[in-house]
């Protein structure tokens, strides 16, 4: 057999669990208590065994209840599920055994109990504990095993690529697992039914709440992994255009066929040219609209992975911890996804990220475009507007990044201090998008820390070190917004600065910026860009120590006094700018302000506005016969403090 990847095995396991629950469906007419011994369901690759089941408050006698496991009765899963009523269904142990090619996994749940089951809905369900054992293939990329609450799936991804020359064994312990308000009847509908043509079914809850108290995994030579409490709520699904069970079956069959074909000599990667592949692609894309993952979090993940040795590299240990992973309303922004308290270490390097999150991100429009593309077998890629495949960006934010990297020591000298890199905040925020392009954009970088290292052939680094800058601390900001009603692009802020150095800030307004700028027609967008006009520009330069250090460094190299150089630079600024800018009043104002700033660096502010109400366009600039004529078209203010 061909070893299946994680997604296929996971689907087997989930389908098998659904089959167990569906098989227990019935409607009580009177209360009966009984026991079922030695129940075994064989689905080929998946075998489910329950040594003993206790049923209390059932409407059926034992024989009638057992007959529900016979799938050839002709009664639909949905019908059987709607009859599921019982005060309690329990089992001391439930075992799921999977054998896919060279891979085998056994999962045992202990003290399984469903309470207050009515009309196919389980009010409460628990499994007190569980164990997992698995063996991965002996060579190549391992076929990743199915997950119990994500456990083995995470582990298999961690050791992808092979951990050793021999088979990798995994064993683990599952703590208490529980759920509330599990709707088995609706699950059966999603798996076995399809919506009527042209009808969009309602999104209904699959379960109200899910909790798993944690798990631990021992991956042998590959390392160890553990996870604390995981919670989820509000997972919902709708009946789609195709039964989910059929989609999963076709996906597994296609995946097996492609895996087998890939082993043939001269195999080519799969394409979407065949009708079968296109249909499968449309089915998978449709699944996105049929599920809502609700909200939840996972805490205290810890992972130690041992990378395999290669001829060119020795084995290394990678440690990683995550304090919290959250999504939906449990994320800080009440939507999206967040990772908090990430720590990592490998090869002597270590680092951490306080928080990494996104909100407002959406790919629904992208998937709609992909579905439309797949529905057109003869679509020409040269005519496709790829901007339609840009997702809704939303907000991406990173807080508290720090990394320490060891430096190789020189022979006979003490070890050098590690290089440190840090970032306080990075945020990219995109507003409403027009043809895939954001109509507003905000970028914030706060306290980006980068070391200045000595290197031969880099005079800039030598000068920075000579001026006392061993660590650069840089911040930047961009804030732009298109105002459709006024056809203006507001440059609210553009800034760049370094701690102990200086800061440059600018803002302004561009006029005649129409929606054609966002057109998918490149020629039309270029014409719109060339038609934009500058109405107002304001710039501010603040000296925060860089000028004095630069002057001292240049004086040291020239073996002169800093004050002598300062007077020389001020004179050069005054005479040079006067010669370049001309004799206009605006030119004189700018020259005087710059000269004062050079003589006594503080804050230089320059503001320019177009005299024409429509602004200053490109055509106005390129028709100038003398660059100094620009001062005839603008009102200029300049000041140095």
Describe this structure in words.
By secondary structure, the protein is an alpha+beta fold. 25% of the residues lie in helices and 40% in strands. The strands form two sheets. Strands 5-6-9-10-13-11-8-7 form an eight-stranded antiparallel β-barrel. The protein has a two-stranded antiparallel ribbon with strand order 19-20. Helix 6 packs across helix 7 (275-288), helix 7 packs antiparallel against helix 8 (364-374) and helix 12 runs antiparallel to helix 13. The longest helix has 20 residues, at 562-581. The chain is elongated. It starts with 5 loop residues before the first helix and ends with a strand. The model is unreliable at 1-29, 139-152 and 159-165 (pLDDT under 50).
Largest sheet: 8 strands, antiparallel, barrel
Instruction: Give the distance, in angstroms, between the N- and C-terminal Cα atoms.
Output: 79 Å
**Nearest-integer average pLDDT:** 83
In angstroms, what is the radius of gyration?
A: 33 Å
Task: State which percent range the strand residues make up.
Answer: 35-45%
Low-confidence stretches: 1-29, 139-152, 159-165
Spatial strand arrangement across the major sheet:
5-6-9-10-13-11-8-7
What is the number of strand segments?
28
Alpha plus pi helix count: 14
Summing up helix and strand content along with how strands pair, one would put the structural category as alpha+beta
Task: Provide keyphrases for this structure.
alpha+beta, disordered N terminus, 641 residues, eight-stranded antiparallel barrel, 14 helices, two-stranded antiparallel ribbon
């Amino acid at each position: 057999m061909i070893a299946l990847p994680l997604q296929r095995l996971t689907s087997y396991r989930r389908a098998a669990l659904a089959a167990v629950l569906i098989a227990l469906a019935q409607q009580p007419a009177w209360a009966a208590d009984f026991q079922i011994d030695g129940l075994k369901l064989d689905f080929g690759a998946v075998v489910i065994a329950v040594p003993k089941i206790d049923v209390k408050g059932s409407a059926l006698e034992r024989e009638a209840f057992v007959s529900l496991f016979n799938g050839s009765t002709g009664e639909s899963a949905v019908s059987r599920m709607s009859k599921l009523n019982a005060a309690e269904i329990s089992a001391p142990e439930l075992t799921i055994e999977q054998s896919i090619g060279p891979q085998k996994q056994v999962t045992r749940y202990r003290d399984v109990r469903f309470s207050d089951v009515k009309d196919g809905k389980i009010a409460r369900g628990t499994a007190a504990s569980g164990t997992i054992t698995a063996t991965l293939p002996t060579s190549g990329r391992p076929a990743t095993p199915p997950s119990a609450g994500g456990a083995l799936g995470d582990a298999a991804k961690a050791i992808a690529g092979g951990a050793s020359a021999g088979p990798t064994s995994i064993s683990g312990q599952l703590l208490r697992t529980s759920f509330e308000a599990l709707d088995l009847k609706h699950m059966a509908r999603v798996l076995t039914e399809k919506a009527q043509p042209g009808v969009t079914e309602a999104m209904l809850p699959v379960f109200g709440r899910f909790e798993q108290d944690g798990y631990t995994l021992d991956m042998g030579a590959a390392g160890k992994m553990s996870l604390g409490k995981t919670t989820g709520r509000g997972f919902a699904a709708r009946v789609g255009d195709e039964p989910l069970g059929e989609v999963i079956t076709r996906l597994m069959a296609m995946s097996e066929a492609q895996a087998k074909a890939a082993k043939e000599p001269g195999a080519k990667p799969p394409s979407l040219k065949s009708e079968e592949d296109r249909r499968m692609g449309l089915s998978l894309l449709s699944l996105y609209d049929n599920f809502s993952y609700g909200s939840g979090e996972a805490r205290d993940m810890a992972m130690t992975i041992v990378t395999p040795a290669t001829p060119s590299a020795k084995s290394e240990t990678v440690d990683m911890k995550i304090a919290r992973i959250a999504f939906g309303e449990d994320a800080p922004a009440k939507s999206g996804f967040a990772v908090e308290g990430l720590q990592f270490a490998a090869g002597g390097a270590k680092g951490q990220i306080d928080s990494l999150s996104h909100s407002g991100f959406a790919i629904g429009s992208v998937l709609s475009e992909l579905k439309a593309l797949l529905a057109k077998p003869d679509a020409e890629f040269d005519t496709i507007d790829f901007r339609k495949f840009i997702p809704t960006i939303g907000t991406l934010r990173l807080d508290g990044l720090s990394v320490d990297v060891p430096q190789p020591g020189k022979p006979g000298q003490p070890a050098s201090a590690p290089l440190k890199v840090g970032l306080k905040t990075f945020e990219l925020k995109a507003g409403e998008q027009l043809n895939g392009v954001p109509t507003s954009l905000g970028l914030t970088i706060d306290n980006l820390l980068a070391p200045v290292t000595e290197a031969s052939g880099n005079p800039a680094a030598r000068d920075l070190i000579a001026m006392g800058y061993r660590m650069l601390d840089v911040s930047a900001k961009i804030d732009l917004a298109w105002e459709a009603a006024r056809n203006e692009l507001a440059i609210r802020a553009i800034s760049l600065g370094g701690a102990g150095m200086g800061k440059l800030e600018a803002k302004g307004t561009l006029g005649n910026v129409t929606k054609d700028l966002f057109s998918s027609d490149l020629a039309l967008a270029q014409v719109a860009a060339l038609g934009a006009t500058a109405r107002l520009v304001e710039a501010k330069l603040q000296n925060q120590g860089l000028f004095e250090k630069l002057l001292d460094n240049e004086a040291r190299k020239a073996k002169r006094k800093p004050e002598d150089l300062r007077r020389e630079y001020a004179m050069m600024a005054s005479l040079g700018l006067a010669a370049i800018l001309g004799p206009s009043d605006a030119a004189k104002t700018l020259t005087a302000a710059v000269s004062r700033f050079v003589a006594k660096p503080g804050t230089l502010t320059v503001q320019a506005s177009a005299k024409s109400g429509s602004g200053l366009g490109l055509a106005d600039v390129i028709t100038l016969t003398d660059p100094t004529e620009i001062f005839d078209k603008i009102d200029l203010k300049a000041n140095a403090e």
